[in-house]
Amino acid sequence: MKKKFSILLLVMVLALGSLGVGYAAWTDVIYIDGTVTTGSVCMEVSPNHPITVTDDDMPPEYPKAEYPTSNPDMNGSFDFASWGYVDKNVGWGEATAVDLDGDGINETIELVLNNVYPWYYNHVDFWAHNCGSVPVRLNKVVITDDYGNSTEVGVSDITTLDLNDNDTDDFQILWGHPLGTQLEYCDSVNISFAMLVLQDEDPAFQGGSFKFYISLEWVQWDKYPYTPED
Amino acid sequence: MKRVGILVIVLVLALGAIGVGYAAWTDVIYIDGTVNTGNVDLNVVNYSGTWIYKVIGNENYPDEVWVYHGWATVPFEPPAGSVEPPVAYAVALPGGEDDTVDVIFENAFPLDELSADILLHYEGTIPVKVDAVITSVTGDAEEIALLAEVAEFHFYESDETGTVGTEVTEGGAQLHYCDYVLCVMTLDIPQEDRYMNLSGSFTAEIRAVQWNEYPYTWPTPTGSPGL
Q: How many helices (H) and strands (E) does chain A have?
């Protein structure tokens, strides 16, 4: 009797014990409703400052040069060793900020040099504006020709291009702004560069239209200098 | 508890590894540049010459000479009594190829008016300076040397009618788009017997160079001894 009762008790304890493992424990919960907003890296051609092209004077009777003139062209020498005014108004430049990707900010400057000739010199300066909420630094400047040849440049670097791909260098760009410039939210910075047409005696270089491209890459300030991982 | 601690460390390492692979936020400003070049383009638009006739029995010409200077492409009628062929003439004519001119001086003698001209029209957008140079000569060396002494090129401001305007005397005739200039070739033969019975041939170039490169060192033409 005693033995059967003990076994029964043991079975009950074991059964109750196994039942206890399946019961939910007493619980309570604290809820967290979280909101996360991310900042943005956004750079634009400043809408609050002009783009200045040093020689932007079209000869009033183009294609006839203006002479005498109060708006003379500038000419330079190879590698920008020197530059100065000449006696005629022959060529000129124009620049416009545009929004090519349709996102509502002007990220591109369309620059056109007109009726230019060997040793013609011009200079452009514009303002870059931080339209984002994250500080940025100027990470990289790349100059590319129309044939996919690219060069990374720093301040005072001179890039020589062959605009018509005829193995004769015919254009130079002197970059005027250092890398690493930092902009806080809504800051702007003035950036400039100079251009010089070289002597290319190829008849096909006359009366033609040629392209070059400059890209200014800005990176979140804490990642400068930045090189993407492969 | 120990297993929880190991789990936490594994999670931290995994998240850290993911963090190294993240790209940074970037944005780009672009400059699209277009370079439109001008051009240099000098063209001959007319040719003229001088013809000298002996005129006999025409009371309008008591000196018995008629000198006519006019466009080579426009026929003309010598006055009554004129003896053919002309005593002498100088003429510029279109050459066999674009931008070439044939020039003939026939039986030249001392005469101020004997000249062959070409009217140049500048159709390029970049101003130029223009001058002329004899690039080669063929013939007897002594005769050529004498002829070279008296051969001259003169440039005069002009218009579409070939008006002889102000002579350009300093460093190249300057041309802007649509300007005209008259290039006059003469033989200023003195009254000296040693200039008689000379013959020779020459090539010359009227050279236009962008004005900001003037004076320009032209390459020596291949095969030409030059002067």
A: 1, 14
